[in-house]
Amino acid sequence: MKAVAMSAIETEELTRRFGSSTAVDHLSFQVLEGEVFGLLGPNGAGKTTTVRMLSCLVLPSEGSARVGGYDIRRDSLKVRQIVGLLTENPSLYERLTACENLDFFAEAYGLSDLQEKRERIRELLEFFDLWERRSDKVATFSKGMKQKLAIARALVHKPPILCLDEPTSGLDPESAKAIRDLIERLSQHEKHTILLCTHRLEDAERLCSRVMIIRKGKTAFVGNPEELRDRMTGQPVLQVTLRKVNKKIIESVRKIKQVREVSVNKSACRLMITLDDAKSATPEVVRNVVYADGMILSVNAIRPSLEEAYLKMVKEE
Amino acid sequence: MKLRIHRVMLVFRKDWREVSRNWEVILPIVVIPFIFSILLPVVIVLIPNLADVPGINIGDLETMIRNLPSHVRDELGGMTDQQVLVYIMSLYFFAPFFLIIPLMASSVIASDSFAGEKERKTIEALLATPLSDSELFLGKILVSFIPSMIVTVISFLVYSTTVDVLSFTLFNGRLLLPNIVWVMLIFGLAPTVALAAIGLTVTISAKVKGFREAQQISAVLLIPILVLIFGQVSGAVIFGPVLIGAMIGIFAIVDLLIFHSGVELFKREEIMARLA
Fold it and tell me: Under an 8 A CB cutoff, do B17 and A95 touch?
């Protein structure tokens, strides 16, 4: 029997108003245990306010939410205990050293055993290549190093739920990849639940099992990245590259019932075929091309990127 | 609301590490006590009188002497004018200044407590921790209170030594300080007054957006102490054991009220909402 995943985060009609403006407008969603859930949306969409409500930093004006089974209004201290938060700004004490920053937060989150605390801090600083700089004041760190230290802070108490606001921003490609690998590992092997706010669509595409797009505080879409692409751009386009393109081949493709459109790039010897159902029609396309004496070099189902789908979604009114 | 002392001290240690590495904060803590405990008494009273150069004379303190309690006036009976002047100035005139020392020494740290964290954008991570509101609030109070009281006590020791050394010959080997009034003032009244002022300043710091705003508002808290100074100089208020004892009792109650209302008013959700 397949185990049913429990909700790590559950919101119901979550709303936050600031004066007359509504930052988050009746958001309802669930994040399952061990899932990486992406919050996407343009600036000012309400992503950070949503994360702040779920981390008990801002009270909702309406609605409710449970994080790790705890109500964010009634059990705020318990929610804070089980959530690791990477804030929009690194939020580090610049006059303290890297070690002193982590030491303070480790103890604030209840890691009081000295040996355990030291080992955890060392483990994190070594992972993020900051061990050699452990005794340096944070003020002397680069933006990327501060970001890494802020992520280390969010992880210091091994929280089951992580809220990461733009974790790869300000990082060089190598460090950004290390963070993506870390998020993947935390989710897959250590079963952390991760709520990921990001502008980087490649991060969302690679890491998130589901994404939610917020627009003007409201849910515009919830689903996996594949569903988002399907919804915004329909079926993939079949790209067939041949040794030579001729009229006979083009006609043989056009007469297939499921083919909606065929565009030809003669110089590249390529056919771009729009189909009703790419999955079921592809074998027939290949067969017809071969019967028309076409020499196929490659067949690819071309999908629009998540970025294209996302941009289309956020521009939709 | 939970209050775990080791967590309060955690906030204190973190803040003190930051404060002790900031010379802009440390400088007034060191300079102000030096001015009040050494410079002012030496320049205004002790040197002019002991070295016989022009300074304050006995006529300037007539009202103050007239309003002194009878047992103190009796004590002055057998003294020379020079002795009376040094005695009154050292023991009575400068007493209220020692209430200013903890207030001024703590003013920068207390104003910076939450407002500084907001300005430096460190507040979000701090408020996201499971430290309770009262632990955060008390930790922030202590980081202003403990150093300012250490400075006050050191200033008192320095002042007593300065007065005793410089007046030793004038009073034929008699030590003027410490006496009961000063001990009650430094170890009873100064801490209770400082706690009240720091509690209010930290509460203000949590409410306003920036450090400067907090410091400007908290400067108003010096006014009652200045009233006491003018009261003492004019002879309207004279610090005696009974008055100091009563003031300690009143300020202890005020401290409790301020702490409770400060914690009640400290709403971390409101702080973040205001910053959003």
Answer: yes
